[in-house]
Amino acid sequence: MVGVERHVVVKVGGAAVGVGGNLPPALDDVVTLVREGWRVTVVHGGGPEISRWSERLGKTARFVAGLRYSDADTVAVAEMALARVGKAIAAGLSAAGVPAVSLGGQDGGLLRAERLRLRDEQGQELDLGLVGRLSEVATGILDALHSAGLVAVLAPVAPDASGQLLNVNADDAAAEVAAAVGAEALVLASDVPGVLVPGRAEPLGSLDAERVRALVRDGVVSGGMRPKVEACLRATEHGVTRAWIVDGRRPGTVRDAAHDRPGAGTAVRGSAPAALAAEREAVLTAYQDLFMPTYSRAPAVLIRGRGSWVWDLDGTSYLDFLCGISVNNLGHCHPAVVQAVARQSRILAHTSNLYHTLPQLETAQELMRLGFAGRVFFANSGAEATEGAIKLCRKAAWRRAQERGEPQRLEIVSFEHSFHGRTYGALAVTRGYQTGFGPMLEGFRELPWDDVAAAEAAIGPQTAGVIVEPVQGEGGVRVASRAFLQKLRELCTRHGACLVFDEVQCGLGRVGSMFAFQQFDVEPDVVTLGKALGAGLPMGAILAREPWGEALRRSDHASTFGGNPVAAAAATAGLRVLREEGLDRRSLELGERLRQMLRATLAGAPLVQEVRGLGLMIGIELTAGQPLGTQIVDACREHGLLLNCTADRVLRVMPPLTVTERELEQGVGVLGEVLREMAARGAAAAG
Ligand code: PLP
Fold first, then answer.
1. Residue 54 Cα distances to 19, 105, 277, 632, angstroms
2. 391 counts as catalytic
3. What is the DSSP letter of 59?
4. 411 CB within 6 A, ligand 1
5. What is the pLDDT of residues 280-324, one digit of tens each?
6. Using an 8 Å Cβ cutoff, are 308 and 659 in contact?
7. How far is 329 from 534, CA to CA, in rounded Å?
8. How far apart are CA 409 and CA 547, in angstroms?
9. How far apart are the first and last CA of the chain?
10. DSSP-assigned letter for residue 687
11. What pTM value is reported for the model?
């Protein structure tokens, strides 16, 4: 099984903090965990400090359902007291050799909260005052601090949408932060040894979701412990594998809990493994009943993703080397994209294209910075971009026929093994998927792949357009030769046909340049984009340089959703990250390294015929076809690595462009192990 970055969120309570003097045990453990290579985020309380300052101001603390009632003065006192506590923690950690910074929710827009509404057993709303629950965590700030080698120490106060500061329960805040950052574990260091029940001296060792709910319902867990167990439960419901309540005053408990060692305190594990397995089965069955059987889906139920990793319902983590088929090129849930989507969905989600919108304009401007000047049409998918591009070729030819009195040219040329989508127009240029769908549209012709002579013989004055993937994806990761693409350019120019490059899969940095064509010294007339364009949201685009950019005019083409503001906001954020972080160059370098690593690891592997590709779009051609390819993909998944098999026998490897070298090594390790096991099994079966 491959290893994911180990990230734990530790909440230290007011009593465990100890302002001044030696580092208290819980923080000592934080230091040890950081030295062991863990990523640690600290969230702190400050109850005693808040109470002390409140009393000085003549205010007595009042608690409702275990939460501190907060009026405006209490929030102001909490802000001040928590800042003092946070600074003391950061100073203590820094002095112990673990540089740390303390932040409140207001700093850099780190946290956002909304008013917490709770009801009592009679259904009456409880008056909690200015108490909130975190609604947003700007995880990018936390990532930046971590990258700079700093431990973040967070105070649980946060503004709501109107800027009103709210007091947030620290356990609750820690749970939300743990879920938002995709932490493996949450540890609540308190001043009790865990969840205690009547008649038992020792705390309960482990609780699943059902047991926690029963304990709360039956009143066995109440008072200050209730928000703690509920916070643990919420964290596990949002993908945190385990949440512990431990006695932070005892040395080693926080560390033991992070390592999941029995005896550390009480562990909350969400649903029991048996319940999760049953839930997964129920999901798979419901899919069979409710969905058309068009896909062969792996038996994984993915609920959460971050960076190069995704998580199954049962907590299994997978290293994602397929990226939703080259969509999540910035990794899962990139903070810049998350923030852009959250922001835009609050402002304006949809307008139709009867109006102008700012997000769409920004995406168009951002696209033009990538090295292909022209006009854009926004669609919602790759297939739609293909449809639009074919219509563009035909309409341009029609206009020329009208204007110049030429005979109408109709023919659209595509190539063997190509994949341009599944709608009828796209299917017309995707021969391999036409069975049973005839009659097809007329005027389409398929030529052999990468065959200069065949192109020369077939493309002529009857050709309206030529569509080609510079690097074929579904067709088995085949890189076109420079001579072939240059010949297509020459022929289209000579005969007045439109040259369309389908960069839906290979564009936007995937093969090591913003556009794939940039690596072949050929400029097409039209480029289609999709997949990674929306950074996880559905979006496609047709880019066309002049004069092709004016071929489709008013009412010639349209889409209700095309360039939808939320998708556009995601696209702009994603494109900026791509450009500003130079991920195209990174893809080129890492792709080269990955191919070297694969060749070195797989050298002599009897099942592998060739490792090929460009940038981080890599194909491993196997010596035999299905079902071997599927078996390898399944075995990799069982070992925690996601990839797929295309064109029957080509394993397709497309990690995020943000993948780390260590993750590449982990992925190659799994693949090597699986291929060796398969080869050994095959040899044993043959022997
Ligand atoms: N063009 C290429 C090169 C593709 O790889 C794909 C999808 O795999 C498409 C077009 C179709 O895109 P979509 O599935 O978004 O319709």
1. 17, 21, 49, 63
2. no
3. -
4. no
5. 899 999 999 999 999 999 999 998 888 999 988 887 889 999 999
6. yes
7. 10
8. 17
9. 29
10. -
11. 0.80
For this structure, is 419 an active site residue? Answer: yes
**Are the C-beta atoms of residues 312 and 303 closer than 8 Å to each other?**
yes
Spatial separation of the C-alpha atoms in residues 26 and 37, rounded to whole Å: 17
| Structure letter (DSSP) for residue 70 | B
Distance CA 638, CA 631 (A): 10
Residue of 329, 396, 372 lying closest to 536 (CA atoms): 329
Tell me whether residue 228 is one of the annotated catalytic residues.
no
- Collapsing DSSP states into helix, strand and coil, what is residue 208? coil
Q: Which of 326, 419, 539, 654 to mutate to test the pocket of ligand 1 (most atoms within 8 A of CB)?
A: 419
Q: CB count, 10 Å around CB of 273?
A: 12
Instruction: Taking residues 144-151, report their average pLDDT.
Output: 93
Residue 60 C-alpha to ligand 1 middle, in angstroms? 64
Nearest protein Cα to ligand 1, atom 12:
382
Q: Where do the H-state alpha helices sit in 263-357? A: 273-290, 323-326, 335-347
pLDDT at 661 over 80: yes
Q: Is 182 in the pocket of ligand 1 (CB under 6 A)?
A: no
Give the number of the atom of ligand 1 that is nearest the alpha carbon of residue 474: 5
Q: Computed over its alpha carbons, how large is the radius of gyration of the chain?
A: 29
Nearest atom, ligand 1, residue 383 CA: 16
| Beta bridge partner(s), residue 64 | 67
